[in-house]
Amino acid sequence: MTPPHHLLKSLNSYTIALMLGFALLILLLSGILEFPSVSSLIPSAKGYRLQANSTPDPFSDLFGAFRKWDAQVGCSQFRDKHKGLVKNRSLAFQEIDGELGCGEVEMGHVSVLVEGWTWVPDNLDNLYSCRCGLSCLWTKSSVLADKPDALLFETVSPPVQLHGHAEWRILDILSREAFGEKWSKWIRAFKFSIDVANLVNEVMSHDKGICKLKRRNGEPLRVYMNLEAGRKRSDREDLFISYHAKDDVQATYAGALFHNNRNYQLSSYKNNDTLVYWSSSRCLPQRNKLAIALLKLLPHHSFGKCLNNVGGLDMALTLYPDCVKDQNSAPQWWDHLHCAMSHYKFVLAIENTVTESYVTEKLFYALDSGAVPIYFGAPNVWDFVPPHSIIDGTKFASMEELASYVKGLANDPIAYAEYHAWRRCGVMGSYVKARAASLDTLPCRLCEAVSRRGGRNARAL
């Protein structure tokens, strides 16, 4: 019996689809056909190889290197090479900019009073017009924010709040458990002083079974910001700000606001004899050991207190007088940091701590100065930087291999210029999100978070 015509047609279609599927599988397994993945966009040691037959071409003129790169490579080819990054969605960042519905924003205006800080910049103080019609006042003045919706504490953790009978109960516990009965009268007599408040706060931070009190209903939300590697919460905040996507509000180091008011004059002339800039004044043993291992193989200038080889801490302005910010004021190291870095082809950037997403100003200073960072730090650093913008030192088998690559790159103007292509051809990849989640945008994003919780009307936990 002959099968119906439509059945034969279905069988033929199925057979063809099956054959195409097997063919596609063979191509994928053989490596002939590949789909872009995030891991394939992260450079390996192979990605750092220079052309074997390239003739050394020592150069000092950065503009000249750009012209050669434009003639032989160009932005179109660079963008095509990294096109897989355009739609890359990194898990290193929170959902930002319109990805949260405006319906969740309960308040039209939010005021944040900055109570305790160490380096939160003054130029964050402002009245912001945010998305969803929200206005946001960020200020250090209790005159401007007399009834704040949130109190922000940066590095200094929120103090313990003592109320009514609970106040005396806590003081009794402190007297009995921490200091003994003989201090009871003294503590009660000075319970409203700042010194005792700080003392209470300190004892409470060393958990001895003492209850940690948070805010009451109707009081401002308490916000704690800690951008240090440990990201340790105080257990007394309603909102926690740090650098990781898992925190309540994320704030990366990729912004510009916390290093404003500096000399941003950048040099187009690159030292060809002294290749690497390094500066560190916190001489951590492990970081010094790593720096010594690399710098002994490369001509370098080491500023700062650690491994200084330039004859003192203030030699940058002697070497580069064009970096003086103000002739009438005493120089500070941060005034001329970017300008001094810009004279070098490379800047060594080593994090204090190696942990996920902890990518600090050490790297972004180098990028902003127009140098190429040699980086040792966060394993997911490529989530935070533009494509082909840094040299990841961890991708090399040895310091000798890394030093050899750096020397070769310093004598290859076209290959070196490609490390600057990201800023000349347009920013791509997740670096866009790193900037969007930075300190620059923190006020609006924090005010949104406060608004979603209802500010003072939020239910106390």
Describe the protein's architecture and organization:
Pathway: Protein modification; protein glycosylation. This is Fucosyltransferase. Its EC number is 2.4.1.-. One of its GO terms (molecular function) is alpha-(1->3)-fucosyltransferase activity. The protein has 461 residues and is an alpha/beta fold. Among the domains are: 106-159 and 214-251 and 438-460, no CATH class; 276-431, 3-Layer(aba) Sandwich (Rossmann fold). The protein has helices spanning 5-30, 62-72, 75-81, 164-179, 184-189, 194-205, 285-295, 316-319, 337-341, 361-368, 399-410, 413-418, 421-425, 431-436, 442-453; strands at 109-116, 126-129, 135-139, 150-154, 221-225, 239-242, 249-250, 276-279, 300-303, 346-350, 372-376, 391-392. A seven-stranded mixed beta sheet has the order 2-3-1-4-5-6-7, covered by helices on one side. A five-stranded parallel beta sheet has the order 9-8-10-11-12, with helices on both faces. Helix 7 links the parallel strand 8 and strand 9 (300-303). The longest helix has 26 residues, at 5-30. The protein is globular and about 70 Å long.
Query: How many beta strands in the DSSP annotation?
Result: 12
Enter the CATH topology name of the domain at 276-431.
Answer: Rossmann fold
**Amino- and carboxy-terminal Cα gap:** 78 Å
Poorly predicted runs of 5 or more residues: 5-11, 26-41, 163-169, 190-197, 207-212
- CATH superfamily of the domain at 276-431, called what? Glycosyl transferase family 10, C-terminal domain
Q: Approximately how much beta-strand content do the residues carry?
A: 5-15%
| CATH class designation of the domain at 276-431 | Alpha Beta
Q: What does the overall shape look like?
A: globular
Q: Residue share in helices?
A: 25-40%
**Major beta sheet summary:** 7 strands, mixed
The radius of gyration is: 28 Å
The helix/strand series, from N terminus to C terminus, equals HHHEEEEHHHEEEEHEHHEHEEHHHHH
Number of DSSP helical runs = 15
Summing up helix and strand content along with how strands pair, one would put the structural category as: alpha/beta
CATH architecture of the domain at 276-431: 3-Layer(aba) Sandwich
Mean pLDDT across the residues is 81
- How do the strands of the widest beta sheet line up side by side? 2-3-1-4-5-6-7
